[in-house]
Design goal:
The chain is of the alpha+beta class. The protein is 50% helix and 25% strand. The protein has four helices and seven strands. The protein has a seven-stranded antiparallel β-sheet with strand order 4-5-6-3-2-1-7. The protein is elongated, with a radius of gyration of 53 Å.
Amino acid sequence: MQNEQKNQNVQKQKMTEEELQRTQVLNFDTFKQVARYEKLSSKKPAMIFALLGVLAILIGGGYPIVQSQMQKKSENNSQSTVQARKTNKAVHSKLTCVKNNLGGGNGLDEVLTIQYSFEDDKLTSLTKELKLTITPGSPIGQTSLQNYITALEPYLIQQDGYKISVKQIENGVVTTTDADYKKLDVSKVPELNQTNNYFNIIYIAGTKSSAISEDMASQQFTCS
């Protein structure tokens, strides 16, 4: 009986030692897990700050590139706008027609110059200049010139888009007829003026330069 109890005490002691070793192993494993966690935890903020630093560098370096690309795009858009405006810009041109009548029977030399202005080859305005000078040596030239100036008075009118002016020069006179088709109403031009070849308006707004040039040539004008 006494031996049996002694054997039981020995077994209990062995179990206690085994449990102690097992507990120490568990505690050591727990310690390793805690140490590994702390090690990882201490690295995690460092990794985060490192990533933030890389992002800051990338963003800082990329901003000028983005800004430059946006500026280039803006410049390209501006150039395209300017190019479009240039493309849509109206083309202006002129046609000058001249007819001379020198040494006429009335003792006056006559030069009639008409300048037509076009926008995209459509008539927009004209200036008709009549220059009369006394033919050198003519005995009736002065009288004819004075008669012309006297008869000119009723023709000198000014209205929207149409006016006639006169200027005296040495041994002569110059009358100028201006017509602006953007303002002109041809129907309102007096019949007296319309029946006079020096002051009439025979072409309507928008007439092509080729049509005017051909008609002027048929009237013995030289155009350029």
